[in-house]
Specification:
By secondary structure, the protein is an alpha+beta fold. It has one domain: 3-Layer(bab) Sandwich (minor pseudopilin epsh fold), CATH 3.55.40.10. Helix content is about 30%, strand content about 30%. It has one helix and nine strands. It has one helix at about 10-65; strands at about 70-80, 80-85, 110-120, 125, 135, 140-145, 155-160, 165-170, 175-180. It has a five-stranded antiparallel sheet with strand order 3-2-1-5-6, covered by helices on one side. The longest helix is centred in the first third of the chain and has 55 residues, at about 10-65. The protein starts with 8 loop residues before the first helix and ends in a 5-residue tail after the last strand. The relative contact order is 0.16.
Length: about 180
Protein backbone atom coordinates (compact mmCIF):
# COMPACT_ATOMS: atom_id res chain seq x y z
CA UNK A 1 0.00 0.00 0.00
CA UNK A 2 1.34 3.43 -0.95
CA UNK A 3 1.10 6.23 1.71
CA UNK A 4 1.61 9.80 0.76
CA UNK A 5 4.26 11.79 2.67
CA UNK A 6 4.90 15.52 2.44
CA UNK A 7 3.31 18.15 0.26
CA UNK A 8 3.03 18.47 -3.46
CA UNK A 9 4.80 21.22 -5.31
CA UNK A 10 1.48 22.96 -6.04
CA UNK A 11 0.52 22.98 -2.35
CA UNK A 12 3.87 24.50 -1.39
CA UNK A 13 3.65 27.19 -4.10
CA UNK A 14 0.13 28.16 -3.06
CA UNK A 15 1.17 28.40 0.63
CA UNK A 16 4.25 30.49 -0.17
CA UNK A 17 2.30 32.84 -2.44
CA UNK A 18 -0.40 33.38 0.21
CA UNK A 19 2.22 34.10 2.89
CA UNK A 20 4.01 36.52 0.56
CA UNK A 21 0.77 38.38 -0.18
CA UNK A 22 -0.08 38.55 3.52
CA UNK A 23 3.36 39.91 4.48
CA UNK A 24 3.30 42.42 1.61
CA UNK A 25 -0.06 43.64 2.92
CA UNK A 26 1.18 44.09 6.52
CA UNK A 27 4.62 45.67 5.99
CA UNK A 28 3.33 49.19 5.16
CA UNK A 29 1.13 49.16 8.27
CA UNK A 30 4.10 48.24 10.44
CA UNK A 31 6.07 51.26 9.20
CA UNK A 32 3.16 53.63 9.90
CA UNK A 33 2.65 52.04 13.30
CA UNK A 34 6.14 53.11 14.42
CA UNK A 35 5.40 56.68 13.32
CA UNK A 36 2.07 56.57 15.17
CA UNK A 37 3.84 55.38 18.33
CA UNK A 38 6.21 58.37 18.11
CA UNK A 39 3.17 60.68 17.85
CA UNK A 40 1.44 59.09 20.87
CA UNK A 41 4.69 59.26 22.87
CA UNK A 42 4.99 62.99 22.12
CA UNK A 43 1.41 63.54 23.27
CA UNK A 44 2.10 61.55 26.44
CA UNK A 45 5.27 63.57 27.20
CA UNK A 46 3.43 66.87 26.78
CA UNK A 47 0.54 65.78 29.00
CA UNK A 48 3.05 64.57 31.61
CA UNK A 49 4.88 67.92 31.49
CA UNK A 50 1.62 69.81 32.03
CA UNK A 51 0.70 67.57 34.97
CA UNK A 52 4.21 68.01 36.39
CA UNK A 53 3.98 71.81 36.20
CA UNK A 54 0.55 71.77 37.86
CA UNK A 55 1.81 69.43 40.61
CA UNK A 56 4.84 71.67 41.25
CA UNK A 57 2.54 74.68 41.61
CA UNK A 58 0.43 72.82 44.17
CA UNK A 59 3.53 71.68 46.07
CA UNK A 60 4.94 75.23 46.11
CA UNK A 61 1.69 76.52 47.59
CA UNK A 62 1.64 73.76 50.20
CA UNK A 63 5.23 74.65 51.18
CA UNK A 64 4.26 78.26 51.86
CA UNK A 65 5.47 81.50 50.33
CA UNK A 66 9.15 81.57 51.27
CA UNK A 67 11.88 83.35 49.36
CA UNK A 68 12.49 80.19 47.34
CA UNK A 69 8.84 79.44 46.61
CA UNK A 70 7.71 80.07 43.06
CA UNK A 71 4.57 82.04 42.23
CA UNK A 72 3.60 79.69 39.44
CA UNK A 73 4.84 76.88 37.25
CA UNK A 74 4.12 76.44 33.60
CA UNK A 75 5.04 75.06 30.22
CA UNK A 76 6.53 77.19 27.44
CA UNK A 77 6.16 76.00 23.83
CA UNK A 78 9.07 76.82 21.54
CA UNK A 79 9.45 75.11 18.19
CA UNK A 80 9.29 71.36 18.62
CA UNK A 81 10.40 71.55 22.26
CA UNK A 82 8.73 72.46 25.53
CA UNK A 83 10.19 73.85 28.72
CA UNK A 84 8.83 73.40 32.23
CA UNK A 85 9.49 76.71 33.98
CA UNK A 86 8.89 78.47 37.29
CA UNK A 87 8.06 82.11 37.99
CA UNK A 88 10.05 83.34 41.01
CA UNK A 89 8.78 86.47 42.82
CA UNK A 90 11.05 89.51 42.65
CA UNK A 91 9.93 90.55 46.15
CA UNK A 92 7.73 88.93 48.77
CA UNK A 93 4.52 89.27 46.77
CA UNK A 94 3.46 87.20 43.80
CA UNK A 95 1.86 89.16 40.99
CA UNK A 96 -0.92 87.53 38.99
CA UNK A 97 -0.71 87.40 35.20
CA UNK A 98 -2.42 90.19 33.28
CA UNK A 99 -6.13 89.69 32.71
CA UNK A 100 -6.07 90.35 28.98
CA UNK A 101 -4.03 87.19 28.22
CA UNK A 102 -1.94 89.02 25.65
CA UNK A 103 0.95 89.84 27.98
CA UNK A 104 3.35 87.45 29.66
CA UNK A 105 1.92 84.80 31.97
CA UNK A 106 5.10 85.17 34.03
CA UNK A 107 4.81 88.74 35.43
CA UNK A 108 7.26 88.33 38.33
CA UNK A 109 10.44 87.55 36.44
CA UNK A 110 11.82 85.83 33.43
CA UNK A 111 10.81 82.21 33.90
CA UNK A 112 13.51 79.90 35.19
CA UNK A 113 13.88 76.64 33.27
CA UNK A 114 13.44 73.42 35.23
CA UNK A 115 13.36 70.89 32.42
CA UNK A 116 13.44 70.91 28.62
CA UNK A 117 11.81 68.20 26.52
CA UNK A 118 12.72 68.03 22.84
CA UNK A 119 10.64 66.09 20.35
CA UNK A 120 11.86 64.32 17.20
CA UNK A 121 12.09 66.49 14.09
CA UNK A 122 9.07 64.65 12.64
CA UNK A 123 6.88 66.15 15.41
CA UNK A 124 5.64 69.74 15.43
CA UNK A 125 3.67 71.58 18.11
CA UNK A 126 1.07 74.17 17.21
CA UNK A 127 -0.74 76.21 19.84
CA UNK A 128 -4.29 77.37 19.11
CA UNK A 129 -4.39 81.18 18.69
CA UNK A 130 -0.61 81.50 18.91
CA UNK A 131 -0.46 79.79 22.31
CA UNK A 132 3.05 80.29 23.65
CA UNK A 133 2.80 79.32 27.32
CA UNK A 134 0.49 77.87 29.97
CA UNK A 135 1.01 78.59 33.65
CA UNK A 136 -0.71 77.19 36.74
CA UNK A 137 -1.19 79.58 39.67
CA UNK A 138 -1.92 78.24 43.17
CA UNK A 139 -3.95 77.83 45.31
CA UNK A 140 -6.74 76.84 42.91
CA UNK A 141 -4.43 75.90 39.97
CA UNK A 142 -6.16 78.41 37.74
CA UNK A 143 -4.53 78.22 34.30
CA UNK A 144 -3.35 81.30 32.45
CA UNK A 145 -2.55 81.18 28.73
CA UNK A 146 -0.11 83.36 26.84
CA UNK A 147 -1.31 84.01 23.30
CA UNK A 148 -3.91 85.97 21.43
CA UNK A 149 -7.61 85.16 21.45
CA UNK A 150 -7.60 82.86 24.49
CA UNK A 151 -10.01 84.72 26.79
CA UNK A 152 -12.53 82.10 27.88
CA UNK A 153 -11.77 79.08 25.77
CA UNK A 154 -9.63 76.11 26.75
CA UNK A 155 -6.11 76.22 25.41
CA UNK A 156 -5.41 73.59 22.81
CA UNK A 157 -2.11 72.26 21.53
CA UNK A 158 -1.95 70.21 18.32
CA UNK A 159 0.83 67.67 17.98
CA UNK A 160 1.42 66.84 14.33
CA UNK A 161 3.44 63.94 12.98
CA UNK A 162 3.74 62.24 9.62
CA UNK A 163 0.74 59.98 10.33
CA UNK A 164 -1.72 62.57 11.63
CA UNK A 165 -2.47 64.95 14.48
CA UNK A 166 -3.45 64.68 18.13
CA UNK A 167 -4.58 67.37 20.53
CA UNK A 168 -4.27 68.33 24.17
CA UNK A 169 -6.72 70.68 25.88
CA UNK A 170 -6.13 72.65 29.07
CA UNK A 171 -9.13 74.29 30.71
CA UNK A 172 -9.25 77.45 32.81
CA UNK A 173 -9.35 75.44 36.04
CA UNK A 174 -6.27 73.40 35.19
CA UNK A 175 -8.02 70.35 33.76
CA UNK A 176 -5.83 68.58 31.20
CA UNK A 177 -7.15 66.15 28.60
CA UNK A 178 -5.62 64.32 25.65
CA UNK A 179 -7.66 64.13 22.44
CA UNK A 180 -7.43 61.67 19.56
CA UNK A 181 -7.93 64.51 17.09
CA UNK A 182 -6.34 67.84 16.30
CA UNK A 183 -7.57 71.06 17.84
CA UNK A 184 -10.42 72.78 16.03
Amino acid sequence: MFTRRGFTLVELLVTISLLTAFIAFLVPYGKDMNKQIVLFNAQNELVSALYEARSMAAAAYAAGNSDKAACSYGVVISGNAIRIVQDIPSGNVCLLPAGDWSGSVFPNSSPTDIKTISFPSSISLDGFSNLRAITFVPPDMYAYFEGSGLHNTPACITITGSTGSLGISVGRFGDISANNHACP
